[in-house]
């Protein structure tokens, strides 16, 4: 499937006579247009047009060979490297390059994944409108061309859910997160880490929407799955403990909140060791809840622990 072939065709042949402008992408376009003509038995093109396509096809086959120029997967790998090395602008550029190649090749799932990654990066930069633009395009193309239950579509739903929660549109956010959960349950089964993540996402949105009973239900589901998969002292279950602590704190059930925050802190100490900066968040949670429950001594204790680490 070649997307927007008229635009591509016009752009390509406007520069067709300038050999210095021919790159790997142009070569792929010629290959795909030619294949598109043959596969679809399209005969209403001029001999001149066909001759130019054949000429460049043969020329670039000799110059590039089978391995000439970067391909979509290489662009995507390079984008991943830039993202992991905290170079978001370069990552976006290469995900864009990958998306163009995937689109030309008709690899819609990979195209959607490329746009998902761009949307995620932009969301982390608080560029919500730009992120939504990419994610909505990914969703529209994905739903029109793919099985609507693919995991890449679930990722798009989650990313949109994150944005709408940040914008305060909790109902829309929940709608997207539940769609993602449905796909993950169908594809992965109940006891899967990604399913637990979806329940956790839903729980966090319910907290933002002040629906604390639903938040507790969702975070409990996430906790039960993580407990079965990883165990009660695992790194993975910490977010469930923290989510439940937050929900019970908002319900003013401080004893339950302290129980879960202490579990989160104990697990974090097991994972990171005493005195690590990652402990601060949970110590501050405990300090706040102890103050709310009128236990100043314990509140001061956890506050001082956090302050000691922050001074290092």
Describe the structure in your own words.
The protein has 312 residues and is mainly α. Among the domains are: 5-64, no CATH class; 223-312, Serine Threonine Protein Phosphatase 5, Tetratricopeptide repeat (Alpha Horseshoe), CATH 1.25.40.10. 77% of the residues lie in helices and 0% in strands. The protein has helices spanning 5-14, 24-39, 47-64, 72-84, 88-105, 108-124, 128-145, 151-166, 170-188, 193-208, 212-230, 238-250, 254-272, 280-292, 296-311. Helix 12 runs antiparallel to helix 13, helix 13 packs antiparallel against helix 14 (280-292) and helix 14 (280-292) runs antiparallel to helix 15 (296-311). The chain is globular. The termini are far apart. Residues 1-25 and 58-69 have low confidence and may be disordered.
Map the helices and strands.
Elements: H1 5-14, H2 24-39, H3 47-64, H4 72-84, H5 88-105, H6 108-124, H7 128-145, H8 151-166, H9 170-188, H10 193-208, H11 212-230, H12 238-250, H13 254-272, H14 280-292, H15 296-311
Helix pairs in contact: 1-2, 2-3, 4-5, 5-6, 6-7, 6-8, 7-8, 8-9, 9-10, 10-11, 10-12, 11-12, 12-13, 13-14, 14-15
């Amino acid at each position: 499937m070649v997307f927007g072939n008229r635009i591509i065709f016009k752009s390509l042949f406007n520069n067709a006579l300038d050999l210095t402008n021919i790159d790997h992408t142009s070569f792929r376009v010629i290959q795909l247009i030619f294949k598109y003509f043959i596969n679809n038995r399209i005969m209403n093109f001029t001999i001149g047009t066909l001759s130019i396509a054949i000429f460049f096809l043969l020329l670039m086959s000799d110059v590039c060979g089978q391995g000439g120029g970067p391909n979509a997967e290489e662009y995507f790998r390079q984008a991943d490297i830039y993202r992991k090395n905290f170079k978001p602008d370069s990552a976006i550029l290469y995900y864009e390059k990958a998306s163009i190649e995937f689109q030309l090749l008709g690899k819609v799932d990979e195209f959607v994944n490329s746009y998902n990654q761009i949307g995620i990066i932009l969301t982390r930069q608080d560029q919500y409108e730009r992120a939504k633009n990419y994610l909505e395009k990914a969703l529209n193309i994905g739903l029109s061309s793919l099985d609507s239950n693919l995991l890449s579509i679930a990722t798009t739903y989650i990313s949109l859910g994150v944005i709408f929660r940040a914008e305060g549109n909790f109902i829309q956010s929940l709608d997207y997160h539940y769609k993602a959960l449905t796909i993950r349950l169908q594809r992965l089964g109940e006891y899967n880490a990604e399913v637990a993540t979806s329940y956790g996402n839903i729980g966090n949105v319910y907290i933002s929407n002040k629906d604390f009973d639903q938040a507790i239900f969702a975070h409990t589901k996430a906790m039960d799955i993580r407990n079965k998969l990883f165990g009660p002292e695992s790194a993975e279950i910490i977010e469930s403990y923290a989510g439940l602590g937050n929900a019970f704190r908002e319900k003013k059930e401080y004893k339950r909140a302290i129980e879960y925050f202490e579990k989160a802190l104990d697990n974090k100490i097991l994972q990171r060791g005493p005195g690590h900066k990652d402990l601060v968040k949970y110590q501050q949670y405990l300090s706040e809840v102890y103050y709310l429950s009128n236990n100043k001594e314990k509140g001061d204790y956890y506050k001082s622990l956090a302050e000691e680490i922050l001074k290092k």
